From TrEMBL:
Keyword flag Zinc: no
An MF annotation (GO) of this entry: DNA-binding transcription factor activity, RNA polymerase II-specific
InterPro entries found in the cross-reference section: AP-1, bZIP, bZIP_Maf, bZIP_sf
Protein name listed in UniProt: BZIP domain-containing protein
A GO cellular component annotation in the UniProt record: nucleus
Superkingdom of origin organism: Eukaryota
BZIP domain span: 35-50
Gene3D superfamilies in alphabetical order: 1.20.5.170
Transmembrane portions of the chain: none
Amino acid sequence: MSDCDSSCTSQKKSITNNQLCEGCECSEDEGRRLKRREKNRVAAQKSRKRQTQRADLLHEVKYHCIDKEQHLLTEVLRAHEPLCPIMHCSCTSSSLQPDDMLRLSVLLFLPLPRWAE
């Protein structure tokens, strides 16, 4: 083998080694990038899960507040029914028209129902 052939061969090996090293760096970068993406994906899933849990907790608290308010209003209505002159009126509430109910409320000095305001 001549000196020229050996130098060409060594240059080719050198170029090939450099390309392999660049390929290693590329694959290392790609590996780091994939690892970072996976880590980010897991963090995003955890974040969405926490957000869902917080929303569920808020909905549960709101549900209990509304349920408690409903029970309270039901008890207030039950306590009011025996005292209510409209309930003891000869005409039933199903036969009363909204205008009649309004007039009757004004005559009896009762607070107006919400729908009449």
